[in-house]
Amino acid sequence: MRDVWHSVRAELDQWQRERRVAQFWWRDDDAADASDELKKMLALARRFDVTVGLSVIPAKLNPRLVPLLDPRQVLIHGFAHENHAREGQAKREFGGTRSFDEILGDLEGGIVLIRKILDPRVLPVLVPPWNRIVPSALAHLPRLGFRGLSTWKPRAVARPVRGLLQVNTHLDIIDWRHGRAIKDERLVAGLLLRKLRWRRALKQRASEPLGLLTHHAYWSPAKEQVVVRMLEATRNHPAAIWHTPASAFGL
Ligand SMILES: [Zn+2]
Q: Which residues of the chain have pLDDT under 50?
């Protein structure tokens, strides 16, 4: 079988010819306990010398997880990852049936709690569960201590409000609509290729690092294989850099 990642490497070669650098980062969501899946994922990241940004759920954080974490890789995954959507709405923690005061209270509760349990040096980056947050809450985030925001899809602007840098994720290896299966490797490589080409064509879009999104709870040998192949194609390419979560957010 022809290597489906060949075209990704060829695209990065083109970045190199154009003296450009493709930026990447990796976000993994829903960390709460020291599971085997999480350990496997962290071991894989270490193998490639990549620091994963781990979205940790403050109110569900088991102390057993703490020794496994470097606070400078931890992002704040909302408060309790509870769904407060109204009927018919897509899932969300920060919106739906919650009053604005309750939303702000949970946002503040999340950052205060995780700093207390884990470490005050946790990255002040909010990853709202299900990648959703009521837009009017954004203006309050810097006051609550947040300096970064991460959701899904290309960001509209780098700084949605003053003092808050947004760096999203763009490539999800899971097919949520079909039993949380792994997307076909060819599909993942094709998606990555398209996203790289788009960034190369629209230069201002390349300023946002391209975010790989994983969920370690659904880790499997097949998923690991896709991530391995992606890292093999990009990690040591001279036209690619893999940010740490801290560097992706300039922290
Ligand atoms: Zn989540």
A: 1
Q: Which residues of 70-89 are buried (b: 16+ CB within 10 A; e: fewer)?
A: beebbbbbbbbbeebbeeee
Question: How high is the pLDDT of residue 103?
Answer: 98
Taking only the tens place, the pLDDT of each residue in 83-97 is 999 999 999 999 999
Cα separation of 11 and 27, whole Å?
Answer: 23
* Ligand 1 geometric centre to CA of 57 (Å): 8
The answer, as to whether pTM is greater than 0.70, is yes
pLDDT digits (tens, 9 = 90+) for 139-151: 999 999 999 999 9
Distance CA 99, CA 213 (A): 30
Query: Ligand 1 center to residue 129 CA distance, Å?
Result: 4
Q: Measured in angstroms, how far is the CA atom of residue 77 from the centroid of ligand 1?
A: 7
CA-wise closest residue to 216 among 25, 60, 26, 35 = 35
Q: How far, in Å, is the centroid of ligand 1 from the Cα of 88?
A: 19
Decide: helix, strand or coil at residue 9.
Answer: helix
Query: Cβ distance 80 to 106 under 8 Å?
Result: yes
pLDDT at 2: 61
